[in-house]
Amino acid sequence: MGDVYPRSGPAPSEVPDILHFSSVDIDQARSALNRFYYPVAVGIPEGADGFGLGMEVIQLGPLTVGQLSYASPMILTVAEIDAYHVSMPTTGRMQTRHAGHVVLADPSTAAVFGPGNPVYTVHDGNSAELAIKIERDALEQELAGMLGRPVEGPIDLPPAMDVSTGPSHSWSRLVRLLRDELEHPESLIYQPLIAEQLRSSVLSGLLMSLPHRYHEELTGPATAGPPRAIRRVADAIHDEPERPFTVADLAAIAGMSVRSLQEGFRRHLGCAPMAYLQQERLMRAHETLRRSDPLRVTVAAVAHRWGFAHLGRFASAYRSRFGVPPSETLRSAG
């Protein structure tokens, strides 16, 4: 078995940290930004009137996603950023300066920052952005897990990102989904199994969306992993299907890259590793429904327990596997 590269993220008992904040006081705004992002200097451009900052933020371990709303023009300065960061305007524009690059970001172009340099941003009044912070170790460990070997950081991400098309547009929709869940107290983001999967999807999706020196290795041809390593992963899935496995977690168990794991599963088991995990979870959900009291247990609770974030898709996959809807299995148990 190869080296296992640890992955940062919420512990099973950890819940997301949520902030809803609005203030016209610069010191309060600075304190909120420091808490979730970085030590930052907050200023107002010459000639601008008033001040107002709104924040809606969710923090999933090393991933922070927030919508920042600027009621008035604002200048933010960070002496040295210590993470990977994407600023994605949703309304209005912002100008950024980082590592010798000047980027004019708008709803079609995001600005991307890496660790080790200062960041200077100027925001329009009546503008808003999605601010995505990923701790350095977390993104580099995610990449190591995907490759199946150590990496030397920092990862050389480009200074700008076109989010209007292609994989980057898909990634931006995933981030928006996370932000939208802030408005729902009963959201599945409060389920650790789902939160971990979403966090990993944002990190791996960013690595797949942008060019960097490891990108070709991530997307190029891969050799299939050997049967013994694939069986080790299958056994881990059978033993603990309730664990919040990501494909990179499974690749670490096998001691190989994500692509080698995927090729190995297709060759030896006829499906992708996450599809194999889903089938195991469907079987466990089926067994749980058959043994449960329909007066005490709901289909949604069973689906969430076994890692299904979307109830409609769970019901469809369940019916395809077992020929009946999950509600019928639960009713027959009573």
Automatic annotation (TrEMBL):
* PROSITE patterns according to UniProt: HTH_ARAC_FAMILY_1 (PS00041), HTH_ARAC_FAMILY_2 (PS01124)
Does this entry carry the keyword Ion transport? no
Domain HTH araC/xylS-type: residue ranges: 231-332
List membrane-spanning regions: none
The keyword Cytoplasm belongs to this UniProt entry's keyword annotation:
no
Among InterPro entries, the record links this protein to: AraC-bd_2 (IPR035418), AraC_XylS_family_regulators (IPR050204), Homeodomain-like_sf (IPR009057), HTH_AraC (IPR018060), HTH_AraC-typ_CS (IPR018062)
Keywords associated with the record: DNA-binding, Transcription, Transcription regulation
MF terms from GO for this chain are: DNA-binding transcription factor activity; sequence-specific DNA binding
- What PANTHER family does the database record attribute to this sequence? HTH-TYPE DNA-BINDING TRANSCRIPTIONAL ACTIVATOR EUTR (PTHR46796:SF12), HTH-TYPE TRANSCRIPTIONAL ACTIVATOR RHAS-RELATED (PTHR46796)
Q: Please identify the protein, giving its name as recorded.
A: Transcriptional regulator
What organism does the UniProt record list as the source? Answer: Paractinoplanes tereljensis
